[in-house]
């Protein structure tokens, strides 16, 4: 795993050679797929007890290998205990957009609406764009969430990303990166998915949102790199959420991602310039973002203002069942895809 693209450039080097480490590649033969270290991260751990149990069941079945905890969620303590009991690798899902803050010093904060809740997924973006958000308050809340994570889990997060991708937004990304650097958290998520522009099955509003997410993520790379923060070589998950997750679509996303990594050395946005390519094989690292679980019941769960439609949707169970489908698990084995967690790097 590297922010400067070492592993992808190494794979590219393999792709171009006919003799590599004593292995003879015959002209015209199809190159075997490289082995992959895949982190499958279950987001929103802590949202409600049903969601927590679904995530644990998915982990036990081999469908996910990592979780991201919402420390301001109503069932965060329950989630932390489950993670300890089941030895689930866990990171922090920083939340600035849904529910109540963790910090006790944000009364009247620009982060909150008149009812004392965060502004919401799109509301947060609107307030940020208006220039009304104070970055000092963003920093205070992020630090409070890291500290709360440590209280719940007993150690620092192995990684830290953002609920609803808030961590890559303008201005926020600078503060986010500084907080990670100060706490010594070295891994995050950069949501740029190869092939996403070809996913015409996604509705227009989602394609527009994803395009903006990728733009923000691209502009975050230099910020994260400057602070010594790293991320997997490949990201996927925007095109495989909810009902769009299927065995065939997961195979498509993984296959396209790996192919793009091999063939697109100039434009692949997660590859940083690196002139020194080594002659030692290094597997591609990737993260698949997922949202499995048993659907929330009305009035149960959330981050202080009840569960949203996303958490109550049958899509959560659909993702759970797809991720633990034997066809998916067999595909990983057949392709040399090894599930792991951020802590394993």
UniProtKB/TrEMBL annotation:
Protein name: Carbohydrate deacetylase
Keyword annotations from UniProtKB, A to Z: Carbohydrate metabolism, Hydrolase, Magnesium, Metal-binding
Pfam families xrefs: YdjC (PF04794)
Function: Probably catalyzes the deacetylation of acetylated carbohydrates an important step in the degradation of oligosaccharides.
Family: Belongs to the YdjC deacetylase family.
Gene it is expressed from: ydjc
UniProt-recorded Gene Ontology molecular function terms: deacetylase activity; hydrolase activity; metal ion binding
Cofactor: Mg(2+)
Highest taxon listed in the record's lineage: Eukaryota
InterPro entries: YdjC-like
PANTHER family membership: CARBOHYDRATE DEACETYLASE, YDJC DEACETYLASE FAMILY MEMBER
